[in-house]
Structure formats: structure tokens, C-alpha cells
Amino acid sequence: MWLFNSSIGRKLVMSLSGLFLILFLTFHLAMNFVAVFSGEAYNMVCEFLGANWYALVGTLILALGFVVHIIYAFWLTIQNRKARGNDRYAVVAKPKQVEWASQNMLVLGIIVVVFFILHLAQFWYKMQFNEIAGLDLGVDPHDGYQLILDTFSNPLFVILYLVWFVAIWFHLTHGFWSAIQTIGWNNNVWLTRWKAISNVYATIICAGFAFIAIYFGFIA
């Protein structure tokens, strides 16, 4: 199948999975921002998205999209290195139009994944998984608001999350428009526009998440 046997197909799969994760980030930010205005409303959202079948299905789909994106990212990186052969060791000047993020997408991706695992351990494991498995963690899986307060009361977590958001910002500023280019919107006019949209979107998303971390770390 050409999606697996060709480099274009693999890039398309990685791009589509990346755009899917971008949609999730948008939803996740909107959900988390509720906590800034009302702890009770946020807990209602957490209860709605707890161990219900539709929440579990959504979690599985999200996990699949994330795994597919990671696998294809490594696959394409290995493929590109094999294609370049010994030339990848040659010292050459980077073209001015090549972004720093595009040269370090794999490293940025690894940072994002490592912190994502930390995030899962800190929130998903203590909330949805806790509710499903009935664990005795000393945490109310329906009181997500209190968990946010407890987590960001530690300044170390605030700093770690801010580092994570910076890595996501760099990853998104290149990944967003690159995915759009892969699916076909790559004429000169729209490519420039999509690059601008990618920068604006990444800034709004990451600034929003950073605001939440800072708010609960130093204000709330």
C-alpha cells in the first residue's frame, strides 16, 4: 500500500496524524481554560470525560494518533538519513530560509514525548485511569481542579511545563504548515499564509497553556 511503501505516503500519514493532534490541543486548551474561571465547572467537565465509554474511545483514538505520529516521525528520519548517506556528515552552510525548528524536529519531538509521559503520569493516571482501575492513590479522580492546584503549587512543575510548552511551540510552528504543505496546499501564496497562521496558532495555544500553569502556580 502506497501509504506505507512510499515516502510521500508516510509523510501524508504523519501530517494527518499531526493535524489530528493539533485539533486535540485546541480542545484540551479550551477544556483546561474552564478551570481558570470555575473549579466546579472544570470538575463537571472532568466527570463528563471520566471513565465513560465515549471518553475511553476518544482516549484510545488519541493514543493511536500519537503513536502513529511518533512511529512515522522516526521512520521518516531514518529514511532521510539513509538517503543522504555519508553526506549527512558534511559541514555545509544552512540556507537562510531553513528554520531552526525544521532542523531539529526530531529532538523537539523527543522532548515533547518525554514531557507528555510526565503529563500522563501526573494527570491521566491519577484521574481517568484511577477511576477505571479503582486505585487507591489518595486522589479524587473527579476533582481535577484540586489536582491542578496541588501539581502547580510546586514551582518545579511550573518550570518543567513551561519548558514543554516552548518545545511544543517550536514543533508546531514548523509542523503545522509543513503538514498543510504535504496534503497539497503548497503554492507560494498560501504557503506564506500558512506559515504565518502556524506561528499565530502555536503562539496562542502555547501561551494559553503557559498562562494556565503560571496562574495556578503563582496566582490561584
TrEMBL record:
Alphabetized, the UniProt keywords read: Membrane, Transmembrane, Transmembrane helix
Report the GO terms under cellular component. Answer: membrane
Which top-level group of life is the source organism from? Bacteria
Key word Kinase present in the record? no
Q: Known InterPro entries for this protein?
A: Cytochrome_b-558, SQR/QFR_C/D
Which parts pass through the membrane? 12-33, 53-78, 105-125, 156-180, 200-219
Q: Specify the protein name.
A: Succinate dehydrogenase / fumarate reductase cytochrome b subunit
